[in-house]
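Students often ask why inverse folding is considered easier than folding. One informal answer: many sequences map to the same fold, so there is more than one right answer. In these notes we will look at a single instance of the problem. The structure comes first.
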Protein backbone atom coordinates (compact mmCIF):
# COMPACT_ATOMS: atom_id res chain seq x y z
CA UNK A 1 0.00 0.00 0.00
CA UNK A 2 1.44 3.32 -1.01
CA UNK A 3 0.69 6.97 -0.34
CA UNK A 4 -0.94 7.90 2.99
CA UNK A 5 -1.10 4.23 3.96
CA UNK A 6 2.61 4.32 4.71
CA UNK A 7 1.65 6.36 7.79
CA UNK A 8 0.47 3.20 9.54
CA UNK A 9 2.38 3.12 12.85
CA UNK A 10 4.87 0.38 13.63
CA UNK A 11 3.51 -1.80 16.41
CA UNK A 12 6.02 -1.77 19.27
CA UNK A 13 5.09 -4.70 21.45
CA UNK A 14 8.26 -5.30 23.45
CA UNK A 15 7.60 -4.61 27.15
CA UNK A 16 10.43 -3.96 29.66
CA UNK A 17 10.99 -6.78 32.16
CA UNK A 18 8.71 -9.20 30.26
CA UNK A 19 11.14 -11.96 29.33
CA UNK A 20 8.85 -14.98 29.03
CA UNK A 21 8.54 -16.46 25.55
CA UNK A 22 4.84 -17.16 25.04
CA UNK A 23 3.49 -19.89 22.79
CA UNK A 24 0.93 -17.89 20.82
CA UNK A 25 -0.78 -21.01 19.48
CA UNK A 26 -1.81 -21.99 23.02
CA UNK A 27 -5.01 -20.26 24.28
CA UNK A 28 -3.87 -20.21 27.91
CA UNK A 29 -0.49 -18.74 27.04
CA UNK A 30 -2.18 -16.22 24.73
CA UNK A 31 -4.23 -15.04 27.71
CA UNK A 32 -1.04 -14.46 29.70
CA UNK A 33 0.58 -12.83 26.67
CA UNK A 34 -2.19 -10.27 26.23
CA UNK A 35 -2.15 -9.49 29.95
CA UNK A 36 1.62 -8.97 29.86
CA UNK A 37 1.55 -6.84 26.72
CA UNK A 38 -1.63 -4.81 27.21
CA UNK A 39 -3.01 -5.54 30.68
CA UNK A 40 -3.90 -1.94 31.69
CA UNK A 41 -5.55 -1.23 28.34
CA UNK A 42 -7.56 -4.46 28.49
CA UNK A 43 -8.81 -3.53 31.97
CA UNK A 44 -10.00 -0.13 30.72
CA UNK A 45 -11.86 -1.64 27.78
CA UNK A 46 -13.48 -4.31 29.98
CA UNK A 47 -14.72 -1.57 32.29
CA UNK A 48 -16.08 0.36 29.31
CA UNK A 49 -17.88 -2.71 27.95
CA UNK A 50 -19.82 -3.17 31.18
CA UNK A 51 -22.25 -0.46 30.04
CA UNK A 52 -21.21 0.52 26.51
CA UNK A 53 -20.67 -0.83 23.02
CA UNK A 54 -19.40 0.47 19.69
CA UNK A 55 -19.47 -0.37 15.99
CA UNK A 56 -16.20 -0.97 14.14
CA UNK A 57 -15.85 -1.23 10.36
CA UNK A 58 -12.99 -3.53 9.35
CA UNK A 59 -11.22 -2.45 6.18
CA UNK A 60 -8.57 -4.67 4.68
CA UNK A 61 -7.71 -6.65 1.62
CA UNK A 62 -8.95 -10.20 1.16
CA UNK A 63 -7.18 -12.61 3.55
CA UNK A 64 -5.80 -9.72 5.62
CA UNK A 65 -6.92 -11.34 8.90
CA UNK A 66 -10.10 -9.41 9.73
CA UNK A 67 -11.97 -12.46 11.01
CA UNK A 68 -8.96 -13.74 12.94
CA UNK A 69 -8.45 -10.45 14.77
CA UNK A 70 -12.12 -10.30 15.72
CA UNK A 71 -11.99 -13.84 17.10
CA UNK A 72 -9.02 -12.89 19.27
CA UNK A 73 -10.91 -9.84 20.56
CA UNK A 74 -13.79 -12.15 21.51
CA UNK A 75 -11.28 -14.46 23.19
CA UNK A 76 -9.98 -11.57 25.29
CA UNK A 77 -13.21 -9.76 26.13
CA UNK A 78 -15.73 -12.59 25.84
CA UNK A 79 -18.01 -13.81 23.08
CA UNK A 80 -20.90 -12.28 25.04
CA UNK A 81 -19.36 -8.84 24.45
CA UNK A 82 -17.97 -9.09 20.91
CA UNK A 83 -19.91 -9.85 17.73
CA UNK A 84 -18.65 -10.25 14.17
CA UNK A 85 -20.64 -9.86 10.98
CA UNK A 86 -19.17 -10.76 7.61
CA UNK A 87 -21.38 -9.09 5.02
CA UNK A 88 -20.29 -11.62 2.41
CA UNK A 89 -21.23 -14.54 4.65
CA UNK A 90 -24.50 -12.81 5.54
CA UNK A 91 -25.53 -12.39 1.90
CA UNK A 92 -24.61 -16.01 1.14
CA UNK A 93 -26.69 -17.20 4.10
CA UNK A 94 -29.67 -15.11 3.00
CA UNK A 95 -29.29 -16.64 -0.46
CA UNK A 96 -29.61 -20.11 1.10
CA UNK A 97 -32.46 -19.12 3.44
CA UNK A 98 -34.56 -17.76 0.59
CA UNK A 99 -34.79 -21.31 -0.77
CA UNK A 100 -36.75 -22.21 2.39
CA UNK A 101 -40.33 -20.88 2.08
CA UNK A 102 -40.74 -20.31 5.81
CA UNK A 103 -37.41 -18.49 6.19
CA UNK A 104 -38.08 -16.49 3.03
CA UNK A 105 -41.41 -15.32 4.45
CA UNK A 106 -39.66 -14.04 7.59
CA UNK A 107 -37.04 -12.22 5.52
CA UNK A 108 -39.61 -10.62 3.23
CA UNK A 109 -41.74 -9.53 6.20
CA UNK A 110 -38.74 -7.80 7.77
CA UNK A 111 -37.65 -6.17 4.52
CA UNK A 112 -41.11 -4.85 3.74
CA UNK A 113 -41.03 -3.01 7.06
CA UNK A 114 -37.40 -1.81 7.07
CA UNK A 115 -36.15 -1.66 3.48
CA UNK A 116 -36.33 1.63 1.59
CA UNK A 117 -34.97 1.73 -1.94
CA UNK A 118 -35.52 2.38 -5.63
CA UNK A 119 -36.49 -1.18 -6.51
CA UNK A 120 -39.02 -3.41 -4.81
CA UNK A 121 -38.20 -6.09 -2.25
CA UNK A 122 -39.17 -8.73 -4.82
CA UNK A 123 -36.85 -7.23 -7.44
CA UNK A 124 -34.00 -7.05 -4.93
CA UNK A 125 -34.46 -10.71 -4.00
CA UNK A 126 -34.51 -11.65 -7.69
CA UNK A 127 -31.21 -9.79 -8.09
CA UNK A 128 -29.78 -11.65 -5.10
CA UNK A 129 -30.65 -15.11 -6.39
CA UNK A 130 -29.63 -14.26 -9.94
CA UNK A 131 -33.06 -14.30 -11.55
CA UNK A 132 -32.55 -10.75 -12.76
CA UNK A 133 -28.91 -10.18 -13.65
CA UNK A 134 -29.64 -6.76 -15.15
CA UNK A 135 -30.42 -5.34 -11.70
CA UNK A 136 -27.59 -4.75 -9.22
CA UNK A 137 -28.17 -5.57 -5.56
CA UNK A 138 -28.78 -2.12 -4.03
CA UNK A 139 -26.82 -0.90 -1.03
CA UNK A 140 -30.08 -0.08 0.74
CA UNK A 141 -31.01 -3.76 0.55
CA UNK A 142 -27.66 -4.76 2.09
CA UNK A 143 -28.16 -2.20 4.85
CA UNK A 144 -31.57 -3.63 5.73
CA UNK A 145 -30.14 -7.16 5.91
CA UNK A 146 -27.25 -5.90 8.01
CA UNK A 147 -29.56 -4.15 10.44
CA UNK A 148 -31.63 -7.33 10.72
CA UNK A 149 -28.49 -9.27 11.62
CA UNK A 150 -27.32 -6.69 14.16
CA UNK A 151 -30.66 -6.95 15.94
CA UNK A 152 -29.72 -10.54 16.85
CA UNK A 153 -26.65 -9.44 18.82
CA UNK A 154 -28.37 -7.81 21.80
CA UNK A 155 -26.19 -4.72 22.04
CA UNK A 156 -22.79 -6.31 21.64
CA UNK A 157 -19.78 -4.59 20.17
CA UNK A 158 -20.09 -5.22 16.44
CA UNK A 159 -17.13 -5.71 14.11
CA UNK A 160 -18.45 -5.41 10.56
CA UNK A 161 -16.36 -7.04 7.85
CA UNK A 162 -17.18 -6.25 4.23
CA UNK A 163 -18.96 -2.91 4.55
CA UNK A 164 -18.30 -0.49 3.00
CA UNK A 165 -17.66 -2.79 0.06
CA UNK A 166 -17.60 -0.17 -2.66
CA UNK A 167 -16.69 3.50 -2.91
CA UNK A 168 -20.31 4.66 -2.98
CA UNK A 169 -20.99 2.78 0.27
CA UNK A 170 -18.53 4.83 2.32
CA UNK A 171 -21.08 7.62 2.80
CA UNK A 172 -23.67 5.11 4.03
CA UNK A 173 -21.27 3.80 6.66
CA UNK A 174 -20.98 7.29 8.15
CA UNK A 175 -24.61 7.14 9.25
CA UNK A 176 -25.17 3.42 9.63
CA UNK A 177 -24.66 3.54 13.39
CA UNK A 178 -27.76 5.75 13.66
CA UNK A 179 -29.76 3.57 11.29
CA UNK A 180 -28.93 0.50 13.38
CA UNK A 181 -30.10 2.22 16.59
CA UNK A 182 -26.62 2.47 18.11
CA UNK A 183 -27.25 6.19 18.51
CA UNK A 184 -25.20 6.87 21.63
CA UNK A 185 -22.33 4.53 20.88
CA UNK A 186 -19.18 5.53 19.00
CA UNK A 187 -18.24 4.06 15.66
CA UNK A 188 -14.80 3.79 14.14
CA UNK A 189 -12.87 2.44 11.18
CA UNK A 190 -10.13 -0.16 11.53
CA UNK A 191 -7.83 -0.29 8.51
CA UNK A 192 -5.37 -3.15 8.04
CA UNK A 193 -2.17 -2.74 6.07
CA UNK A 194 -0.71 -6.05 4.90
CA UNK A 195 1.99 -6.48 2.24
CA UNK A 196 0.78 -7.99 -1.00
CA UNK A 197 3.71 -10.40 -0.84
CA UNK A 198 2.20 -11.89 2.32
CA UNK A 199 -1.24 -12.17 0.73
CA UNK A 200 0.29 -13.81 -2.32
CA UNK A 201 2.12 -16.37 -0.21
CA UNK A 202 -1.02 -17.12 1.79
CA UNK A 203 -2.95 -17.81 -1.39
CA UNK A 204 -0.35 -19.76 -3.35
CA UNK A 205 0.48 -22.17 -0.54
CA UNK A 206 -2.94 -22.40 1.11
CA UNK A 207 -4.25 -25.95 1.49
CA UNK A 208 -7.38 -27.44 3.01
CA UNK A 209 -8.40 -30.86 4.22
CA UNK A 210 -10.90 -32.44 1.79
CA UNK A 211 -12.73 -34.01 4.74
CA UNK A 212 -12.97 -31.35 7.45
CA UNK A 213 -12.07 -28.26 5.38
CA UNK A 214 -9.46 -27.15 7.94
CA UNK A 215 -7.06 -24.60 6.36
CA UNK A 216 -3.26 -24.59 6.62
CA UNK A 217 -0.31 -23.17 4.71
CA UNK A 218 2.79 -24.99 3.49
CA UNK A 219 5.07 -22.00 4.05
CA UNK A 220 3.92 -20.49 7.33
CA UNK A 221 1.34 -22.76 8.98
CA UNK A 222 2.15 -26.46 8.59
CA UNK A 223 0.58 -29.43 10.32
CA UNK A 224 2.48 -31.73 12.66
CA UNK A 225 3.14 -34.26 9.90
CA UNK A 226 4.48 -33.42 6.45
CA UNK A 227 4.59 -35.87 3.56
CA UNK A 228 6.69 -36.10 0.40
CA UNK A 229 5.40 -37.20 -3.00
CA UNK A 230 8.32 -38.87 -4.81
CA UNK A 231 6.53 -38.82 -8.16
CA UNK A 232 6.01 -35.06 -8.21
CA UNK A 233 8.89 -34.09 -5.93
CA UNK A 234 6.51 -31.95 -3.87
CA UNK A 235 5.77 -31.80 -0.16
CA UNK A 236 2.27 -31.93 1.28
CA UNK A 237 0.58 -31.57 4.66
CA UNK A 238 -1.41 -34.23 6.48
CA UNK A 239 -4.48 -33.08 8.40
CA UNK A 240 -4.08 -32.98 12.20
CA UNK A 241 -7.74 -33.78 12.85
CA UNK A 242 -7.81 -37.31 14.34
CA UNK A 243 -11.05 -38.04 12.51
CA UNK A 244 -9.36 -37.42 9.16
CA UNK A 245 -6.66 -40.10 9.63
CA UNK A 246 -3.84 -38.07 8.11
CA UNK A 247 -5.81 -37.02 5.03
CA UNK A 248 -3.62 -35.32 2.43
CA UNK A 249 -4.42 -31.62 2.28
CA UNK A 250 -4.88 -30.05 -1.14
CA UNK A 251 -4.73 -26.62 -2.70
CA UNK A 252 -7.83 -24.69 -3.69
CA UNK A 253 -8.51 -24.30 -7.39
CA UNK A 254 -7.15 -21.01 -8.69
CA UNK A 255 -4.95 -20.31 -5.67
CA UNK A 256 -1.78 -21.13 -7.60
CA UNK A 257 -2.31 -17.90 -9.55
CA UNK A 258 -1.80 -15.95 -6.34
CA UNK A 259 -3.18 -12.47 -5.84
CA UNK A 260 -3.28 -11.68 -9.55
CA UNK A 261 -6.52 -13.64 -9.70
CA UNK A 262 -8.08 -11.05 -7.35
CA UNK A 263 -6.16 -7.99 -8.55
CA UNK A 264 -9.29 -5.93 -9.28
CA UNK A 265 -10.60 -6.60 -5.78
CA UNK A 266 -7.28 -5.62 -4.19
CA UNK A 267 -7.15 -2.39 -6.18
CA UNK A 268 -10.66 -1.46 -5.05
CA UNK A 269 -9.82 -2.31 -1.43
CA UNK A 270 -6.84 0.03 -1.65
CA UNK A 271 -9.05 2.85 -2.93
CA UNK A 272 -11.61 2.20 -0.20
CA UNK A 273 -9.04 2.45 2.58
CA UNK A 274 -7.54 5.61 1.13
CA UNK A 275 -10.96 7.24 0.87
CA UNK A 276 -11.81 6.34 4.46
CA UNK A 277 -8.46 7.69 5.62
CA UNK A 278 -9.44 11.09 4.20
CA UNK A 279 -12.64 11.28 6.28
CA UNK A 280 -12.98 13.64 9.22
CA UNK A 281 -15.00 13.14 12.39
CA UNK A 282 -14.66 9.36 12.66
CA UNK A 283 -11.85 7.76 14.72
CA UNK A 284 -9.50 5.53 12.77
CA UNK A 285 -7.33 2.67 13.97
CA UNK A 286 -4.43 1.79 11.69
CA UNK A 287 -3.00 -1.71 11.93
CA UNK A 288 -0.04 -3.08 10.05
CA UNK A 289 0.66 -6.76 9.65
CA UNK A 290 4.39 -6.31 9.09
CA UNK A 291 7.41 -4.61 10.61
CA UNK A 292 10.66 -3.60 8.88
CA UNK A 293 13.58 -5.90 9.61
CA UNK A 294 15.40 -2.83 10.95
CA UNK A 295 12.74 -2.47 13.70
CA UNK A 296 13.07 -6.02 15.05
CA UNK A 297 14.22 -4.71 18.45
CA UNK A 298 10.75 -3.21 18.98
CA UNK A 299 9.14 -6.66 19.14
CA UNK A 300 9.83 -10.14 20.50
CA UNK A 301 11.03 -12.79 18.08
CA UNK A 302 8.18 -15.20 18.89
CA UNK A 303 5.69 -12.59 17.61
CA UNK A 304 7.06 -12.89 14.08
CA UNK A 305 5.60 -15.32 11.55
CA UNK A 306 8.20 -18.05 10.90
CA UNK A 307 8.79 -19.79 7.61
CA UNK A 308 9.30 -23.54 7.25
CA UNK A 309 11.80 -25.44 5.12
CA UNK A 310 11.29 -29.11 4.24
CA UNK A 311 13.84 -31.78 3.36
CA UNK A 312 13.08 -35.41 2.67
CA UNK A 313 15.26 -37.77 4.72
CA UNK A 314 16.07 -40.84 2.62
CA UNK A 315 17.24 -42.81 5.66
CA UNK A 316 14.16 -42.32 7.82
CA UNK A 317 11.66 -41.94 5.01
CA UNK A 318 10.29 -38.86 6.75
CA UNK A 319 10.36 -35.13 6.12
CA UNK A 320 12.61 -33.01 8.31
CA UNK A 321 11.11 -29.60 9.07
CA UNK A 322 13.27 -26.57 9.85
CA UNK A 323 11.97 -23.23 11.09
CA UNK A 324 13.59 -20.02 9.89
CA UNK A 325 12.93 -16.29 9.73
CA UNK A 326 10.47 -15.43 6.98
CA UNK A 327 11.48 -12.17 5.31
CA UNK A 328 9.12 -10.52 2.82
CA UNK A 329 9.11 -7.28 0.86
CA UNK A 330 6.48 -4.81 1.97
CA UNK A 331 4.67 -2.72 -0.64
CA UNK A 332 7.46 -0.13 -0.51
CA UNK A 333 10.09 -2.79 -1.23
CA UNK A 334 11.43 -2.81 2.35
CA UNK A 335 12.60 -6.11 3.86
CA UNK A 336 10.04 -6.92 6.55
CA UNK A 337 8.75 -9.56 8.92
CA UNK A 338 5.09 -10.52 9.01
CA UNK A 339 3.37 -10.53 12.40
CA UNK A 340 1.45 -13.40 13.90
CA UNK A 341 -2.12 -12.27 14.73
CA UNK A 342 -1.74 -11.63 18.53
CA UNK A 343 0.72 -8.70 18.29
CA UNK A 344 -1.52 -7.03 15.71
CA UNK A 345 -4.37 -7.30 18.21
CA UNK A 346 -2.13 -5.74 20.88
CA UNK A 347 -1.81 -2.76 18.55
CA UNK A 348 -5.58 -2.74 18.07
CA UNK A 349 -6.22 -2.74 21.82
CA UNK A 350 -3.79 0.10 22.52
CA UNK A 351 -5.24 2.27 19.77
CA UNK A 352 -8.81 1.39 20.76
CA UNK A 353 -8.27 2.85 24.23
CA UNK A 354 -7.30 6.16 22.62
CA UNK A 355 -10.12 6.05 20.07
CA UNK A 356 -12.70 5.55 22.83
CA UNK A 357 -11.10 8.22 25.01
CA UNK A 358 -10.47 5.84 27.92
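Output (designed amino acids):
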Amino acid sequence: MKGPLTDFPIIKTKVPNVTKKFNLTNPEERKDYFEAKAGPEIAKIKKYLEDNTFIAYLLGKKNSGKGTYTKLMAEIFGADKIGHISVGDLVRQIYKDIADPEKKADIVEYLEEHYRGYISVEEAIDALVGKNQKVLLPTEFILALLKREINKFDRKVIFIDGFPRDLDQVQYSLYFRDLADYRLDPDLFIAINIPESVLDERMRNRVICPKCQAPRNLTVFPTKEVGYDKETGKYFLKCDNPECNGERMVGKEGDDAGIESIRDRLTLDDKLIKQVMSLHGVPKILLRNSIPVSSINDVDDYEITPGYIYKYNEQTGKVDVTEESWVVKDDEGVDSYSFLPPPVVVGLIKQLVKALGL
